[in-house]
Amino acid sequence: MPLETGARERLRVRLTNGSSGCSGTVEVRLEASWEPACGALWDGRAAEAVCRALGCGGAEAASQLAPPTPEPPPPPAAGNTSADANATLAGAPALLCSGAKWQLCEVVEHACRSDGRPARVTCEENRALRLVDGGSPCAGRVEMLERGEWGSVCDDTWDLEDAHVVCRQLSCGWAIQALPGLHFTPGRGPIHRDQVNCSGTEVYLWDCPGLPGQRYCGHKEDAGVVCSEHQSWRLTGGADACEGQVEVHFRGVWNTVCDSEWYTSEAKVLCQTLGCGTVVERPKGLPHSLAGRMYYSCNGEEPTLSNCSWRFNNSNLCSQSLAARVLCSASRRLHNLSIPEVPAGVQPVTVDTPEAVNGGSGREHRGPSNRGLHREETKCSNCTHRRRAPARPAGNLHTLSLTESGWGSTPAPKGQE
Prior knowledge:
The chain is mainly beta. It has helices spanning 5-11, 44-53, 160-169, 264-273, and strands at 13-16, 23-30, 33-36, 91-97, 105-113, 120-122, 128-136, 139-146, 149-153, 175-179, 191-193, 224-227, 232-237, 243-250, 253-257, 279-281, 293-297, 309-312, 325-328.
C-alpha cells in the first residue's frame, strides 16, 4: 500500500511528475527543500529501495537500469563570450544504496552536476489513468492501470463528481459529461472498479470509494468522460456537413475559428478529420458571432486540429479576423448531387446538444462547486438510445461525426472560467 504524503515527508524521499505516487522523478529532501536526485549515479539497488520504502512494491525491471553516462562538460566556447570564467554549477544530491533496503541508503549532497539527467523510477504498484477512443486524450472510455494491466471502470453510480476527478487528474479541465456504457467502443480485459463514489475533491480516481469491478459488470457498462479541454468540430451554414463556417466545441460551448491563420494546411487537417476529403476552397467568412475564438497553426500533417499549435481567445492573434470557412472535396455541392445528412464514409453518432435548441430539455451539467445538484441528475438516463442531432439552419442538414461530437454545454467550476 503506497505511503500517505505525511509518511513520505518523514521518509525524506518521494516521486513526482508521474502518473501516481509510485512513479516519476526521484526527489530527496535537503533541509527545507526537495531536490531531484542525480541520475548518473542511480542504480537498481536504489530503485528497489525507494519503491519498497514508499510502499509501492519493487521496481519494474526497466527502472533499475542506470541512465546513460552523462557526457563530460563542453570546453569553454571560442571567441568573445560574456560568461563568467569562474562560474560553477551547484551540485545535485545522489542517493547511494549498498543494498535494496532503505536503511542501507544515504543521501550524498553535491555529488553530480545539477544540469544532468535526474533519477526516475516506475514501481510495480504504479497506477495510471487514460481516456480511450474519444478522439483526444480528454474524452473517451475511462481506463486505469493496475498491477500492470489496463482495465475499465463500470458505469454503476458513475456521475459528474467521478468524472471531474478524472478530468482534473489528466489536466483536461472539468467534466462536460459523465457517460454510461456504449457511448465509446467497449474495452477489453479486466474491469478494475465498480460503484465509484467520488466526492469530486480527490487527487486520483483510485482514491475514491468503490468496489472491485469484476463481479457484476460487463464491458457494455464501461464508463466514459468528456472533459472541457476536448475539442470537436463541425461546419455550419453550408450546403451540407462538408461545407460552411468552422466551429469548435471547447470548454462546453461552440466557438468560431479565426481566419488570420486559416490557410490550406489548417483547412486540410479539418476536412480529413471530418471525413470530408481534402480542402477545395477557403471562402471569406462572416464576423465572429459565437462565444469564443480559436486560433490554429498547422503544418498540414496533424491528425486533428487539436494536435496543431492552438490558442483560445487570444486577442492579438485574432485581431481583425473573421470566422473561418471551408469547402471540402466531399461536399455534394461539387458533384451536383442531392444533399445527404452525413458525408459518405462518416459514421454518425447520437449526442445531446441542448444549447443548440431553444428551450431544449437537455440537463445543465454543473461544476463541482455546485453541490446542490442531485447525483441522479448528472447522469443521462437514456443516453444509450439513438437520438438525432438538433436541426441545423435551413440548407445544412448535419449529423455529427464520431470526431465531431456536439457535447452539451457545461459551465466551468468556479475559478476555472
